[in-house]
Amino acid sequence: MKVHVLTGAALAACLFAPGAEAHIGLSTGTPAVAATTQELSFAVGHGCEGLDTFRLEIRIPEGVGGVRPVPSVFGKAQVTQDASGRVTAVTWTKAEADVLPSDSDFYKFTLRAALPDKPFTSLAFPTVQSCRKADGTVVTQEWVGTEGGHGGHLAAETTLPAPVLFLLPARTPGWNKYTVNEHVHDLSVFKDAQIVWAGSAAYSPSAHISGLIAQEPGTQVLREIHPGTDIWVRY
Predict the structure, then answer these.
(1) Rg of the Cα trace of the chain?
(2) Residue 172 Cα to chain centre, angstroms
């Protein structure tokens, strides 16, 4: 294996370094690894126009299977399927008597799903949030925009961003070699790595190591990864 190395103290630092804007948050607790089954948690920190959220619909992207929702304070979820039986959406709806008079609570919605075997790609989960006024008028916010995802060039549909999950490949402690077939603009997806090498360019989530990379002769700072690039990542 041929890997560019930093000299002296820089190498030691690489080897031993430890690894509120309104939106619908999406987290997995652990890195989202392609071709695995994981729990996906969607966090709703705000309602609509000062109103309490009473319904949330999460649309399931192609390639995601085995979807099983977890009951929330909203109660049991309703699952929508297509003709083949694939789950295309999961919706939680509050009982009318449980709707709060104002936007005061934080909500979390969880589902378990099998992720596709497509590392270094972004999965957008378009989400529709609904709130109800005292007169019964329903106000909705559509979180369906896909511009600026980790993976790259996705067309924008609206100014409200959809929850996005970036899939990483399986890894082992130490060095891992990957071929990246998608354009990766946001290298923060490697936030739990020690260092990433692509040719003579390197990236680290550590500000200290990043400074050493910038000062190392013959080494460039890695800012994005183009399709077809081989990379080495140390976890």
Answers:
(1) 21
(2) 21
CA distance readout (Å), 78 to 30, 56, 183, 228: 26, 10, 36, 41
pTM here? Answer: 0.82
1 has pLDDT over 90: no
Which amino acid is present at 57? E
Note whether 14 and 234 are within 8 A (CB).
yes
Residue 189 has pLDDT above 50, yes or no: yes
105 half-sphere exposure, CB direction, 13 A CA radius: 13
pLDDT (mean) for 139-162? 71
Which tokens sit at 108? 């979390």
At position 107, the amino acid (one-letter code) is: Y
CB 112 within 8 A of CB 66: yes
Per residue in 13-35, pLDDT (tens digit) is 333 433 345 689 999 988 999 99
- How high is the pLDDT of residue 159? 77
**In the chain, alpha helices (H):** 8-16, 207-215
Question: Up-side HSE of residue 84: CA atoms within 13 Å toward CB?
Answer: 6
